């Protein structure tokens, strides 16, 4: 292993830059050459490569997004696309590739691995929806971003005695909603993982109002419905003053929190070590507070078993 | 003047609490008694008063929203409503009232003033849309909140080479959009004050892309249209990848920045001084970095003349 | 179990309030009565108790410090002191006590447990120096606070081409220094756990300067020496421009990050459950991402085995 | 005017980068060429110049410090030093120079101006100690940084019932102490501008404790003494538990707040306009919320007349 490359793919997440930095610095520290590949698999197919030196990753550890930029690629799902990419890698004599991204990115990394390119995958997504890791790169930052937004909204909810329905990211996974909900004392949390009866929310709202709680916060992961839908339901069943907020893309950005920087450093460093040992086809993560190493196939096999329901139940007990 | 009261009315803003704290502490410092009136004019009509001691405003200087809560009141616009309120004030022997709120709140304060209740108005609104002051209480915090959100969105805009259209508060006033736009290097800013030709935005987008600028931020004050409308226009005229974000209620919250805390302290303190001198019917503000004191009528006469256009023009020059 | 109490003891940490909130709300949810004990064991001996209702823990989840206030108590180490405390608990018919604090606080909780008072301990300290848990309540917030401060100092270090020596908390444990150092790309980290040769720091400084790196950040945990001592050493051996910063008490404060709020909720909730089951004499924590439950004796037996050295080594590799 | 340059000098401040960005972008927008001069006057004498394009100031508006780096230069105070600098400027055909810095930097700019180089000065310092402007670039950010630190320290002060003495920057000017003190509800503020009797602080401490206020915050600008000195004084006169914190270099860093970004944009833009009009020898600022333009000599004539005492007095009234 003389020369490796790194790319970021799929939705960007805060934590990608610390991971890129770790891959580049660790590799150079151990005498390897490193290439940055721009715009994910698109750049891999276009040959959009650049030799990275230490200074290229200077001053990025605290920056959100990804300096390598990212993309989603349909073309790379084809045999043709993969062939072109492999040709580029061979032309540059690149022996190993670190792929930072979500589930879709891992599928691309697996395809390359099966065709003989050594690849290691790092879980870069805010959604925490990757099997084999308790936490993905960027998830903790996103949770804190949502938490700070909800803290602000609670200011105004309290001032006006309103019920706020706040929609957060999470198409398939309720992790952001559950964590942020528990962290902000949300009165109800709705996640894609289970169909909580909406009528219980109304019960809790009513009971809260009876006890003198004049405002409440309801968190909704986008995968279970829109904030507007939940607001309509409340308006239909009660006469409480409701407001809706869709947090949107702000959730993807921001300077990574310490945990994501350290996770990026740890997994980025480990990826280089594994490539140097000739390992390929593995997805890294953090499980039970230790680095986890799984075959891509294992990761694809099922959804992660995060304790979403436990967190939501606790949030409800603690929001009386 | 032995006994005064304070209320907050209309949309809450971060800066109200520092102002409440200043009114209460300054009054007690000078031997007055102070009452907090809850829920704005609604509480004034309901007799929802509470005697405030120093400890009631302890630990609130850094909190968003308003501990007095707020409301909008149709009832108080009637003679009947005002009469009831004045009865309550008389029952409590309250000689002066500090009203913290926006334009509508000032109209209520003016009505009371004309009927013999001594009132002083403080400009509490994030919108910066009050005549006679360069800055309202909460505006600076809101601008910084928007700025931080846009900084985060730029992370992801840069990572994906997208045009982001971000909708911010401002029904009649473009101050938040203009300030936050200039502060974040926005490529285009749309405000209610003038009809900027949308086609120039397309020109700038195209020129930016030609120069290699693959992402851009467009700020839209809600009063000039929705972010969705602007996104549709861009999609119609170009093939750039666009995304929309509506920042929403998060803009009203958050711990007040230093400027708003100091403005609250300064104006709150001055309001008490004026009431002690027997002054009534005045709206306070900060103009040319000094406390301004105007009759309510002056404030109602016209819209504020803030240099929105100057800021927007500068933003455009600096976003090439 | 009908009636429980909760106290915070030792140095305050951000995460204590979310834990207090969880204890109180969980208890009330399950029909118990709860008392807050003020000023730690001092208040326990003085009978400084107050019945807590839901509203007493409203709006505290996001606040640093501890609403119960804290203290260090010599008096409670005596038989006499403990006897007085137990008398107060009996007078109030309090059957169980949740103690939130560090190692010293656990010793007090253990003494009470041995004398028949049911106690559960939660690890409330920023230092992360408690055996049997991977993370203490407040540690994550402290790391992020240090990280943000170092990020700011790096701005000025870069602008002036200086070596900054930054002293952080940690008398016996280097966890804060190691985590924050890795999260900020520090060039050297000194911790109490091992005597790193100072001359290697000089080597790295020299090599960095040769490679064009004109500034560097050196993190020092207070337990291994003062920042001034390290600065003197550098000045003696090199002619680099150095500056010193002692972060100080700011490290204890601040709104808890999401992780500390969730840890507080989880452990606080669990503590109540255990007391309801009649369990006593246990210290709770989070190990391998699951709640850990140990006898106090186990916790006292040895120092925690956190991977400080691994983090420091990685930081050095990644700071080339 | 075809070609201009920009440098930053003296202590760095958050607001320098937005000003650099504005100078570069405005100049290029109007068809000028721009050079960045590194390391202030040192770089000017060393010919450390680089042609700047738009991309060189991309993504810097939100960054603290100065991308041009800064220095303090003794050499430039000599005729010889100035001659070498002018030679470099002539070699590059640079017609105008924007100098961003404090009082000392203005003296250099004035020397160049007298020798025929067109210069415009922008007030870049966190200290707010420049005559002719109400606010310097970076001051507002520094005030907010101090405010956030004090907010955090108050968490722990409250939790332990302590008096905290906090030392902030300000050798000659108490602006940071006064603003941050009023913004955080500090109980006492000591500034270089006047010798407040220390015994009054003791009086206030005692009275506060009698009223039940068990903690207090005392802000000390470094120019009036060290925090340690004030702590010793308190310990001598009372038996309160005191703690000391020296905020240090963190005050210079951080992402600029909106106000500093807008001030940088406005003054940077104006500097280019003036140079294009052939103006030289002027210091820009913001006075009474409008751009101020003064001869350097005016600025040197006296200390700024900021209402430090008014703010300190108000802070004391409001901290009862």
UniProtKB/TrEMBL annotation, chains A, B, C, D:
Oxidoreductase as a keyword of this entry, yes or no, is no
Q: Which residues bind Mg(2+)?
A: 103
The keyword Thylakoid appears for this protein: no
Which positions bind ATP? 11, 72-73, 102-105
Q: What is its EC number?
A: 2.7.1.11
Q: Which GO terms describe its molecular function?
A: 6-phosphofructokinase activity
Domain of life assignment: Bacteria
Where does the protein end up?
Cytoplasm
Query: PROSITE patterns annotated for this entry?
Result: PHOSPHOFRUCTOKINASE
Q: Which family does it belong to?
A: Belongs to the phosphofructokinase type A (PFKA) family. ATP-dependent PFK group I subfamily. Prokaryotic clade 'B1' sub-subfamily.
The record's listing under NCBIfam families reads: PFKA_ATP, PRK03202.1
The protein depicted here goes by the name ATP-dependent 6-phosphofructokinase
**What lineage, starting at the top, does this entry show?**
Bacteria, Bacillati, Bacillota, Bacilli, Bacillales
């Amino acid at each position: 292993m003389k020369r490796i490359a790194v790319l970021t793919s799929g939705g960007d997440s805060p934590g990608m830059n610390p991971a890129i930095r770790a891959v580049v610095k660790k590799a150079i520290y151990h005498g390897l050459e490193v290439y940055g590949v721009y715009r994910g698999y698109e750049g891999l197919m276009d040959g959009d490569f650049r030799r990275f030196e230490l200074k290229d990753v200077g001053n990025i550890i605290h920056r959100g997004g990804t300096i390598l930029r990212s993309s989603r690629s349909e073309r790379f799902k084809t045999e043709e696309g993969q062939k072109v990419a492999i040709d580029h890698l061979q032309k540059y004599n690149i022996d190993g590739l670190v792929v930072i991204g979500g589930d879709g990115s891992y599928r691309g990394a697996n395809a390359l691995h099966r065709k003989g390119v050594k690849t290691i995958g790092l879980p870069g997504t805010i959604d925490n929806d990757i099997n084999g890791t308790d936490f993905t790169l960027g998830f903790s930052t996103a949770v804190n971003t949502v938490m700070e937004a909800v803290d602000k909204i609670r200011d105004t909810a309290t001032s006006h005695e309103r019920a706020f329905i706040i929609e957060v990211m999470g198409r398939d996974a309720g992790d952001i909603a559950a964590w942020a909900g528990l962290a902000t004392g949300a009165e109800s949390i709705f996640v894609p993982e289970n169909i909580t009866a909406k009528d219980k929310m109304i019960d809790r709202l009513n009971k809260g109002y009876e006890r003198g709680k004049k405002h409440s916060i309801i968190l909704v992961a986008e995968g279970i419905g829109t904030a507007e839908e939940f607001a309509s339901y409340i308006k239909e069943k009660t006469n409480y003053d409701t407001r809706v907020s869709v947090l949107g893309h702000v959730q993807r950005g921001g300077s990574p929190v310490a945990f994501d920087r350290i996770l990026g450093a740890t997994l980025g460093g480990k990826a280089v070590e594994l490539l140097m040992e000739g390992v390929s086809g593995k997805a890294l993560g953090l499980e039970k507070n230790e680095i986890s190493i799984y075959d891509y196939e294992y990761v694809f096999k099922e959804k992660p078993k995060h304790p979403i329901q436990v967190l939501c139940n606790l949030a409800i007990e603690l929001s009386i």
